[in-house]
Amino acid sequence: MKRIFLFAFVGLVALASCNQSAPEKTIANLKDGIKGETTASAKYSAFAQKAREEGYDTIAKLFDAASKAEMIHATNHTKVLTDLGVAMEAFNPEFEVKTTAENLQAAITGETYEIDSMYPRFLDDAKAEKVEKATKSFTWAMDTEKKHQSFYAASLEALNGAGEKTLPFEYFVCPVCGNTYDKATLEPKCGFCQTDQEKFIAI
Q1: pLDDT digits (tens, 9 = 90+) for 1-46
Q2: CA 127 and chain centroid, separation
Q3: DSSP state of 190
Q4: In this protein, which residues make up the domain named Ferritin-like diiron (predicted)?
């Protein structure tokens, strides 16, 4: 009797697993997030090169740091997607490089979209579909983009006014979540994931 009950229980669990739908919205959002963050990483690396060509080494440092952070976000999103049993399709990042002032404005526009629209929607879907790892990865990315947006805005203001000397020249990136600091705002542990400062990537 116990054996029959056990078989019946296992069968019900298997049936429930089969009927449980995949988190389709979150899967699609993870793929979009991977594309966006990978493209941003490549774009900011190109923006850094352009800034150096124009003599803006300090702004180039910021773009280098942001490029590293965006790749960490892409890697985190990819890990979540893989855990869901889904593979990411190959794609080629597409972007345009203009002057450093225009590139900073493009970066601000991109970060603003992610902060105000993209990641809030992704988070709503991940919470509704109960994908906790996606919620964490999206939150880390969105909170970092807020800092990047602020850094870019300050850089554009300096470029149009007081000059680069007013900007930080050293940045640090958390290797776990991508959180980005300048030297003046460093913390003993990452404010997002609690990783020790000693593990931060210096840019």
Answers
A1: 444 444 444 444 443 444 468 999 999 999 999 999 999 999 999 9
A2: 18
A3: -
A4: 20-163
Nearest to 157 by CA among 99, 98, 109, 104: 104
- Compute CA distances 155 → 48, 162, 178, 180, 191, whole Å: 13, 10, 20, 15, 23
d(CA 202, CA 174): 9
Q: Which residues contact 18 (CB under 8 A, 6 or more apart)?
A: none
Q: Per-residue pLDDT averaged across 69-85, rounded?
A: 98
Alpha-carbon span 193 to 198, nearest angstrom:
14
Burial class (CB in 10 A: 0-12, 13-18, 19+), 107: buried
Tell me what pLDDT residue 20 has.
Answer: 60
Instruction: Give all strands (DSSP E) within the chain, no chain letters.
Output: 171-173, 180-182, 201-202
pLDDT of residue 13: 40
What distance in Å separates the CA atoms of residue 148 and residue 168, rounded to the nearest whole number? 13
Per-residue pLDDT at 61 exceeds 80: yes
Instruction: Say if CB 139 and CB 158 are below 8 A apart.
Output: no
Going along the chain from its start, the domains and CATH numbers come out as 22-163 (1.20.1260.10)
Q: How many C-beta atoms lie closer than 10 Å to residue 153's C-beta?
A: 16
